[in-house]
Amino acid sequence: MRRPHLLVAVAMLAACSDAPTKSTDLPLSLPALAAAPLSVHSAAPLSAIVWIGCANAGAGEFTQIAGHLRLATFILIGETGRIHIRTSARPDGVVGVGMSTGEKYRGTGGTTEHEHIAASGLPAQYTMVNNFRIIGQGTGNNLLIRSVVHQTVTANGVVTASVSHSSAECR
Question: What are the distances in angstroms from CA 25 to CA 12, 17, 79?
């Protein structure tokens, strides 16, 4: 299971001087674990070369895209210590140029991730849905990249659901 945001939450908890350091240090009253939601907004550079098979009158072409991804992460620690993380990413100013034709492209779409993790680390659930579009000039040269990932792990560490599907489709 992918858990990059869990590390952020753990690091934030560890930074608190009164944070428990071992399970025997946990307070008897679990509602004391609840924290105010944390919201983090940032941007990350995006640069990639993407194959668009329907571009260039169906001959296809590599396209250099660049811009930024706007990221928003929301973290909430519930009264039981369960961690809820929601992340969204959307292209911002993502543009591209066809390396064969010189045609212009732009990137749109977005990605959402949801994670639910028990205070002990298990059980846990992770879901990610990505819909990224590269829109070209004219018709028939738009690319849709879609990915769906889901995983559920029980308190015993048993994976009870695991889905991973990706596709790239010209439109």
Answer: 17, 13, 17
Q: For the chain, give every domain's residue range.
A: 4-8+34-170
pTM of the shown model: 0.72
* Preceding amide of 4 cis, omega within 30: no
Type of residue at 135: I
Which tens digits make up the pLDDT trace of 118-157?
A: 999 999 999 999 999 999 988 888 999 999 999 999 999 9
